[in-house]
User: Fold this.
Amino acid sequence: MADQLEEIKSKIDLVQFISSYIPLKKAGRNFKALCPFHTEKTPSFIVSPERQIWKCFGCGLGGDVFRFLMEYEKMDFGEALRFLAKRAGVVLKAYQPTESEAEKEKLYQINHLAAEFFHYLLLNHPAGKPALDYILGRGITKDSLRLFKIGYAPNLWDGLQKFLVGRKGYKPQDLEKAGLVIKSSKFYDRFRHRLMFPLTDHLGNICGFAGRLLDPEVKEAKYINTPETLIYHKSDLLYPLDLTREEIKKENKAVIVEGELDAISSFQIGVKNVVAIKGSALTESQVKLLKRFTENLVLALDADIAGDSAARRGIEIADREGLNIRVVELGKYKDPDEAAQKEPKYYKEKIKRAVPFYDFLIDSAFKRFAGNTPESKRKIGEEIIPVLAKIENEIVKDHYVRKLSDRLEVSEEAVLTQIKKYLMTVSVSQPVTPVVKTPKSRPELLEEYLLALCFQSGKVEILLEKRLESLFRIPGHRRIVELLKDFLKKKKFSSPEFSSTLPPELISLFNNFYLFDLGEKIEDEEWVSLEAEKTATEIEILKIKDELTAISGEIRKLEKEGKSGGKDWKKAQQEFKKLSLQLASIKSKKEV
Ligand SMILES: [Zn+2]
Assistant:
């Protein structure tokens, strides 16, 4: 297994691989980027081609190609392993999935088979005919039915069970875990006589289903969904991101709608950069996922966003993450599905003309409250101030403060004062706190810098110099230099070969030398030599100074104990003199 992991890693170039997800910029021997895992304005995400590792110095995440994929695509190890093995063309010999991975895999399979079953019934079975007529009548094309694998759940208590339990050999308990059956005195199918939309995640796994009522006369919920399961989390899902993510990237814009039909109807008329959020409120995990593909969101929701506090909270989250949000006004149509079906051109035009969220909010408030009496001005203020108060960017905030005060015909000070008052009454939710790092001591930093210089430039022989022998005080650093000495007795230095001889506990320390940001100067041999020389001297000076402090403490102690002039005292005095001379000599050389 370990061999196969190494084989996969050796066949995939980390720089190329990460470049296919985020733009990397060359910086000396390394590559840099804005970290995809936390919000930042200056890049602290570093990739070392030499070591084939990455690390973010902002949030602390880091690792190899597997870790990157697991973090970026939210895969578990088994998923990442299979994905990368396929990419590298490595046939996996024996991979034992963990219990929860195996469980997830089983649920995906069950959902996959259920989707096939429903899809077959809709397109090919007489029982599905009325449903087929209905959905075609709603303007969904056969191509779309195939692409989105839409299906029909028969009007039976055990239709799906007959197929999955009777013919495929699953247990009813497995189906229950997938949310497809409900247990009372016995098991019965959750979805009956409904149009079925398989809900895929951004990797194309079917996590669950949305079942839409066909007969409007029946007094049941219009939609029922898979309940929360091991693989279905309503608040994470963006439907059908697996099919639309590339288009979202290409257009650098995502159109956000509420329901499955809104998404499919939009897709059908060429608005392919669309996702449905199942509800009116964006969640934190949805925003984080979308942010990997675009920074521009266009909301085409049927809910009244201005009046819907959950929707507004979702927008605050997106704003905090630095996304630009615009709002589509559908005018005469009640939802994107209807607009796309009845007037595609109008719908596309409306998307193009989407207005920035804050303008939309102000317009909406003025439409509802005339804004010409003190009372209506107060009401508008009460609605808008809390939203403006939470705008992260001060320039944007200032722009809207001015706009609001203009329209209300009051002073900007009045608006600003209200914002301040509002902020005093609430504690604004803070963005994620950065990881607390214990600061490194100066000697530790200098040692790390010296080691980074030598290892990144390949000029490791510097580390063998006599005067460096007893210089390193961080035990791990000392150990690595000792092992390097042994290594170089036998062969020429190569980073992969040397690291394979290191004990596991030293690997991450060693990797850090390669992640250290040294910029382009690392290519300049002369600079490296001078810099290494300077740093070594600096370390030496620090070391002697610390020793001097220790000895003078010792001398004071002896004097207090009345041992001045004694044997120990004399020895300490001599040592002090010796070190002082040494220090003076180093300092004078340094000045030359
Ligand atoms: Zn980070």
Summary: Residues 525-560 form the longest helix (36 residues). Residues 428-435 have pLDDT under 50 and may be disordered. The chain has 25 helices and 16 strands.
